[in-house]
Amino acid sequence: MGSETTSSTFFEHVSDTVQWTVMGTHPLAGLYTSKQDFFDATFAVLPGLMRNGLTLKVERFHDADEYGIVELRAEATTLEGVPFDNRYCWVCRFENEVIVEVRAYLDSAMVAYAIGRGNATTTH
Fold first, then answer.
1. Are 88 and 105 in contact (CB under 8 A)?
2. Can you give the residue ranges of every domain in the chain?
3. Run of H or E residues at 109
4. Which of 21, 27, 92, 95 has the most CB atoms lying inside 10 A of its own CB?
5. Are residues 14 and 98 in contact, defined by beta-carbon separation less than 8 angstroms?
6. What is the pTM of this model?
7. What per-residue confidence (pLDDT) applies to 123?
8. Which of 23, 20, 86, 32 is nearest to 59 (CA)?
9. What tens digit of pLDDT does each residue of 23-48 get?
10. Which residues, 6 or more positions from 92, have their beta carbon under 8 angstroms from its beta carbon?
11. Helix, strand, coil % (nearest 5) of the chain?
12. Are 78 and 94 in contact (CB under 8 A)?
C-alpha cells in the first residue's frame, strides 16, 4: 500500500467497542474501551497542539491472518514550530473484517513534549 491519508475510511473498519491500548509513558498512554474514547483522548488533543492540525499517513500494511500491522507517520508542526515527525505501529486484530483490538506503539517522548509544551490536559 502506498502513502494514503488515514481518514474516516480506516476508522469505518474499527469497531465502536474496540479495545485500543496506546503504549508508552506519555499522558495519552492507556487503555481505551471504545472508538469514541480513543478519539476524544487522542485525536481531540493532538491536532490542537499543532499549527495546521495533524495528518497521519499509512506507509505500510501487513496482513497476517486475523492480525494486520499498520505503519504510519505523522505530518505536523507544533505551535512552537517544532516538527512532530512521529512514527506509529498499530497491531490490529480483526473479527469478521472489523478491527476489535489495537495495540499502538509510538514515540512517547515526542508526544509528551508536544503535550507538555502545549499545556494540554488529558482525561485519561
1. yes
2. 4-118
3. helix 108-118
4. 92
5. yes
6. 0.83
7. 43
8. 86
9. 999 999 999 999 999 999 988 888 88
10. 67, 68, 69, 70, 99, 101, 102
11. 25, 45, 30
12. no
Q: How far apart are CA 28 and CA 7, in angstroms?
A: 20
What CATH architecture applies to the domain 4-118?
Roll (3.10)
C-alpha cell recorded at residue 41 = 483522548
Residue with cell 467497542: 17
Can you name the residues that pair with 72 across neighbouring β-strands?
58, 88
- Set of cell numbers at residue 4: 494514503
Find how far residue 10's CA is from the centre of its chain. 12
The residue count for the chain: 124
Amino acid 111 reads V
The C-alpha cell 479495545 sits at 19
